[in-house]
Amino acid sequence: MITLYVFGPAFGLPDASPFVIKAEMLLKLSGLPYRKLRGSMRRAPKGKLPYIDDAGTQVPDSTLIRLHLAERHGITLDAGLSETDKALAWSVECLCSDHLYWCAVHERWLDDATFALGPALFFQRLPFLLRGLVTRMIRRKVRGNLHGQGLGRFSPAERQRLLQLDISSLATLLGDKPYMLGAAPSWLDATVFAFLASTWLATLGDTPCKQAVRQHPNLQAYVERLRRQYFPDWTA
């Protein structure tokens, strides 16, 4: 059985990380038996979660997990997709993982109100005298990462404009289809669902990401439909 190492539930989500939700969705789509265990980033390959252990083979990174399922188990999750579809799917994957993700990181970690409802809870287990120091240090590190990535250099209005382009592109691609690329789910749905659900269903207040999704009823219906279909125990 495959073991998926995760952070654990947070903010009304089955996991704090959209990459973990994506990895679990890939396993659900694969039909392979799996279990979830809380992981440690100190023990994880590459120092990040999620990762899987498949009969002794450790695979880090949600995208590498997808490729592993194809290579070891022959489960590509792209049946019926043309080469153009696959290229489009990879482009959308990068939009979610390398741009939309950072929009969510910014609002979770650097907006004081959102931080108080979300990531601040991670620091409650620290001794009171250390809590403020460690919290400021981690938020400063996140700010530096966002500055290096580039999104942290923009004004709130500029970030919101770029965020709306991300979300409206996903809404246009979905259209009135049940899944992102047609009548059947593909690995792209694992990615898009994970990132949209992590914003639309998170109990983090009325964030910019949630405001952007609210403008697109088809995305809201898509998230709810896939949540019921693949995560029936996840009550929104």
Structure write-up:
This protein is α+β, with helices and mostly antiparallel strands and 236 residues long. The protein is built from 9 helices and 4 strands; from the N terminus they run E-H-E-E-E-H-H-H-H-H-H-H-H. It has helices at 18-30, 62-73, 83-110, 112-117, 128-149, 156-174, 187-200, 208-214, 217-230; strands at 2-6, 34-38, 51-54, 57-60. The protein has a 4-stranded mixed beta sheet with strand order 2-1-3-4, covered by helices on one side. Strand 3 (51-54) and strand 4 form a beta hairpin. Helix 3 packs parallel to helix 7 (187-200). The longest helix has 28 residues, at 83-110. The model has no long low-confidence stretch (mean pLDDT 96).
Radius of gyration computed on alpha carbons: 18 Å
Based on the coordinates given, report the CATH architecture of the largest domain: Up-down Bundle
β-strand number: 4
- Strand/helix succession: EHEEEHHHHHHHH
What spatial form do the alpha-carbon principal axes imply? Answer: globular
Q: What count of domains describes the coordinates?
A: 2
Question: Any idea of the CATH topology of the largest domain?
Answer: Glutathione S-transferase Yfyf (Class Pi), Chain A, domain 2
Global structural class: alpha+beta
Percent strand equals: 5-15%
The CATH class designation of the largest domain is Mainly Alpha
Average of the residue pLDDT scores: 96
Spatial separation of the terminal alpha carbons: 29 Å
Q: Would you identify the regions where 5 or more consecutive residues have pLDDT less than 50?
A: none
User: What is the makeup of the main sheet?
Assistant: 4 strands, mixed
Strand line-up of the largest beta sheet: 2-1-3-4
- The helix content is 55-70%
Number of helices: 9
Pfam family, one: GST_C_6
Protein name: Glutathione S-transferase family protein
GO molecular function, one term: transferase activity
Domain GST N-terminal: 7-77
